[in-house]
Amino acid sequence: SLYSLYKGHLCMMxxxxxxxxxxxxxxxxxxxxxxxxxxxxxxxPKHYSLTLHPNIDNGTxxxxxxxxLEIDASYFDADLSSNFNLSLNIYPTVSxxxxxxxxxxxxxxxxxxxxxxxxxxxxxxxxSLTFAVSKQTIRDVYNDTNTALHLYVxxxxxxxxxDDMAGLYYSRYQRIDDDDDGRSYTVTNLVTxxxxxxxxxxxxxxxxxxxxxxxxxxxIAPANATTVLxxxxxxxxxxxxxxxxxxxxxxxxxxxxxxxxxxxTFERTPIMSTYLVAIVxxxxxxxxxxxxxxxxxxxxxxxxxxxxxRAQFALDQSVRVLNAFGDASVFxxxxxxxxLSKLDSIGVSDFAAGAxxxxxxxxxxxSRLLVDRESSSQNAKSQQLLIIAHELAHxxxxxxxxxxxxxxxxxxxxxxxxxxxxxxxxxxxxxxxNDLKYAALSNVLLDDASVYTEAVKxxxxxxxxxxxxxxxxxxxxxxMGVINTIANMMGMHELxxxxxxxxxxxxxxxxxxxxxATVLDAAYTGDGNDxxxxxxxxxxxxxxxxxxxxxxxxxxxxxxxxxxxxLMEITxxxxxxxxxxxxxxxxxxxxx
Length: 592
Fold this sequence. Notes:
It contains 13 helices and 28 strands. The strands form seven sheets. An eight-stranded mixed beta sheet has the order 5-4-8-2-1-11-16-13, with helices on one face. Strands 18, 19, 20, 21, 22 and 23 form a six-stranded mixed beta sheet that branches. Strands 9-10-17-12 form a four-stranded antiparallel beta sheet, with no helix packed on it.
């Protein structure tokens, strides 16, 4: 059975013998950053100041941004006489209108234009920018502790939509006009989905999870848009001169087009990855505010076609789950420690995934979030609670601590899946969601028994299509099964205290599987024997670095005449759907 049936102790008995990885296999699971899809690491973003001005009716938007840069000393190891250059991610439909490099210091305030037009690779989605200034000049001024280096960019791009639900895209629903004989009309809204690599289609950026930064976001939106949201709370809302700004938005049963704009400025975000930035512009109803135990304000936004009681039910569950995660017995880190004062949830009609955990603004598919407390089926209510708990678990696993690279996305998804069942049980024990948990673990056996299955932690070059494909049952459910096994070995209390240590140690940064394993090994007490040292990392690596799962065979020699002879032989091999004779993998066969 897989992962000691997620309840027993098989992994504890045989964990030492499960590690059969060669050096080649190890290297395959640790991708090099030299891939053509990866960005150089010597120049990193520190802060983004981003302004977006969409034209909803025309399907376009314009943007301006300032990116404060940090440069590692290794960047200047190359030829200092060559021109200063940097690379960042840009989606092919983004038109770069201008870019300039700005130096601000007590002794130097200079602006440098591009030496030549930006070179954009449409396959890797990487733009190379070379400026009319030498590396030597930049190094000399950058050594001044009071110097700030900024990249300024102006650009335009397309609003996506229909079946292309990524980046900044259209989400529509039908609304009934209460004032005009009940006629319906289409409400056109703008929604974002950036995970894993679509932030670059909305603003040029360092679009890898390890390039974390803070964000100041400004939206130029239609004045009659009732909903203008981003990750952080609104700091100000200002009407704009119609002669200068136009925000055409056609809405209402009479198809009236209104053009006035407002500038909505948001508070600064915590340090976070680009894929967690979120924006919503449109017309949604909203619940009253509820406060979590840490005084986080929570609201639920929803299309007007849904009854308010459904949104209220979702809000009640969200508040309870956030309280559970922040409790001293679970993560013991209040959500408010992120620096965000609010956590909004919104149900939208068009959403490719079930939900997305954006920091401070969780976006759900409306059918998953908005269920009825009284009339919906028990399964619908259980699934609602689980998806809320999954996305809120991400506020710690994924948002507070992000994966260094997408090969460790299981740290996000496996842990969020595992913790969703734990929190849902705390909040609604009568739902008996652990029955769904064990069903999910059983189902993933079918996928993992395929000869074509991949490892939980796999080599990813950075190709966006390859990264998207990694969001699968092996990452979510098998990843959850690995964590479940570790919980059975350590005990839930000991595991949660280790998780708290991990989250505090890497807060607002990134980590990988090895970092987590080190923390878990240090926390594991076991039986107090030397043989327990490193056992958690051994078990974890065995299941995340190898494809498939083992079949343990026990053969008894019933005919043995000498009582001192061995009566039992235990062997191990990879289990596949069609039996061992269809697939032989000697690296997974071991005499135990």
